[in-house]
Design a protein that fits this description.
This protein has 379 residues and is an alpha/beta fold. 44% of the residues lie in helices and 13% in strands. The chain is built from 13 helices and 13 strands. Strands 3-2-1-13-10-9-8-5-4 form a 9-stranded parallel β-sheet, with helices on one face. A two-stranded antiparallel sheet has the order 6-7. This is 5,10-methylene tetrahydromethanopterin reductase.
C-alpha cells in the first residue's frame, strides 16, 4: 500500500503570529515537504492545481519535475490535474515529459476542480464540466496510445494526423486516477477504463465516502476489470499530531478555528467526529486511518494533508516526520495483515504496467469494450 502527502498550496495567514507567508516561501515549503517525504520513507507526494489566490500551485509538472530531480524513490502525482480546463494535448505532452524525467515515477489524478471561475478563465463553460471531463480524457487516452490521430470532438479544434511527443516512457502511459468527491459520473468513468478512483474525503462523512467508493467498485466489476474488492481506490485524510491528544488540540485549534476551509462552522471536535480529520496522538491517527477500510474496503493509496491552514514550516515538517517514522510503518503492516490475498496491495506503477506487457488492457483506448467483447461482462 502506498502512503504519502498531498498539498493544496494555500497561502493562509498564521493566526498565531499574524504573518502571511509569501508565495515564494509557500512554494519552497511545498517542495521541502516533498523532499522530507522521501527522507522519512513515504511513497507519494501530490500537489493540487489551482489558478487563483490564495493558492499557488498553478503548474504541477514544473514543481514535480523539480522534486523528481532531487529524489530517487518518491512517486509523484497530482490531486488533481484539471481535465476540464487544460487541453488534453498539453496534458499528454507535459506528463509524458515528466514521466521520462522521473524514470516512470509519475501518475496523475484527473478532476474537474472546485473553483467555478477557472472555467471562463480558460475559455470553458462550467455547465459542461462532466462532458468536458469525459471527452477530454478519452482524447488523452488516444494521445498516449496512438500515432497519427485524426480526431474531432465538441470542445476543441480537430486533430489531423497528430502524434503527441514525447511518447510515454517505454510506450506505457502513466496510470490514471479519477478524483471525485461528489460526481457519480466520474466514478463511472474510472470504472469504465479500469483506472483508479481517488476520493478525497477530507470534508465528507463516511456514509458518503462509502457510497461513492461502492459505486465505483460495482461498476469496475460490471465492466470486467475484476472483482469489486480488487478495484483501485485511494483516499484522503488530514492529521495533526503531538505526544498527547490535549497537546495536539491545543496547538492545532487556532489554525482550525481560523482556516477558511474549516473555521466558523462545526467545532474541531464535531469535524473530527464527522470526517477523516484526526487531531491527537500517532496512535489515534493509526486507529482512525485503519477504520477507513471498514467502510471503503481494502484500498491501495492513502494521502494525508498536513501543510494547510497557515501552519508554519517547522510544524509541517514535524508532522511529515511523525507520519513517516511513527505512523506509516504500523499502518503499512496492519493494512497488509488484514488484506485478502486476492486484493491488490499497491496501485499499478510504471514498473508493473511495463511488466504486464504491451497486450495488457492498460494499453487499450477502451479496455472495457474489449473485456465486454470477450464475454467477461459482469464478472
Amino acid at each position: 500500500m502506498q502512503f504519502g502527502i498531498f498539498t493544496v498550496g494555500d497561502v493562509t495567514t498564521d493566526p498565531m503570529t499574524g504573518e502571511t507567508i509569501s508565495e515564494h516561501d509557500r512554494i519552497e515549503l511545498m517542495t521541502a515537504i516533498g523532499l522530507k517525504a522521501e527522507e522519512v520513507g513515504l511513497d507519494v507526494f501530490a500537489t493540487g492545481e489551482h489558478h487563483n489566490p490564495p493558492f499557488v500551485p498553478s503548474s504541477p509538472t514544473t514543481m514535480l519535475g523539480w522534486i523528481a530531480a532531487k529524489t530517487e524513490k518518491l512517486r509523484l502525482t497530482t490531486t488533481t490535474t484539471l481535465i476540464t480546463t487544460n487541453d488534453p494535448v498539453k496534458i499528454a505532452e507535459d506528463f509524458a515529459m515528466l514521466q521520462h524525467l522521473s524514470n516512470g515515477r509519475v501518475d496523475l489524478t484527473l478532476g474537474r476542480g472546485n473553483t467555478g471561475p477557472v472555467y471562463p478563465w480558460f475559455g470553458k463553460d462550467i455547465r459542461q464540466g462532466i462532458p468536458l471531463a469525459i471527452e477530454n480524457y478519452h482524447l488523452l487516452r488516444r494521445l498516449w496510445r496512438e500515432k497519427n490521430i485524426d480526431w474531432q470532438g465538441k470542445f476543441r479544434t480537430p486533430l489531423q494526423g497528430y502524434t503527441s511527443t514525447p511518447a510515454p516512457l517505454d510506450d506505457t502511459p502513466p496510470f490514471i486516477w479519477h478524483g471525485s468527491i461528489r460526481s457519480p459520473e466520474i466514478a463511472e468513468q474510472a470504472a469504465f477504463y479500469g483506472d483508479g478512483f481517488f476520493h478525497n474525503n477530507i470534508f465528507w462523512n463516511k456514509e458518503h465516502t462509502e457510497q461513492m467508493v461502492k459505486l465505483y467498485r460495482q461498476r469496475f466489476e460490471h465492466y470486467g476489470h475484476g472483482a469489486a474488492d480488487q478495484a483501485i481506490v485511494g483516499l484522503g485524510g488530514q492529521v495533526f499530531m503531538a505526544e498527547t491528544e490535549a497537546e495536539a488540540k491545543r496547538r492545532f485549534r487556532p489554525y482550525f478555528d481560523n482556516a477558511p476551509v474549516y473555521g466558523h462552522g462545526p467545532s474541531m471536535e464535531d469535524f473530527t467526529e464527522m470526517t477523516p480529520l484526526t487531531v491527537g496522538t500517532p496512535e489515534m491517527v493509526i486507529e482512525k486511518t485503519l477504520s477507513f477500510a471498514d467502510y471503503a474496503g481494502d484500498y491501495q493509496r492513502q494521502l494525508f494533508l498536513v501543510d494547510h491552514a497557515g501552519l508554519p514550516m517547522e510544524q509541517v515538517l514535524e508532522q511529515v516526520e511523525i507520519l513517516g517514522k511513527e505512523v506509516v510503518p504500523t499502518l503499512r503492516a496492519e493494512f497488509e495483515r488484514r488484506r485478502p490475498a486476492h486484493v491488490p496491495s499497491d496501485p499499478p506503477t510504471h514498473e508493473s504496467l511495463v511488466a504486464a506487457g504491451p497486450d495488457a488492457p492498460h494499453h487499450l483506448v477502451t479496455p472495457a469494450e474489449s473485456l465486454v467483447g470477450a464475454g467477461t461482462e459482469g464478472h
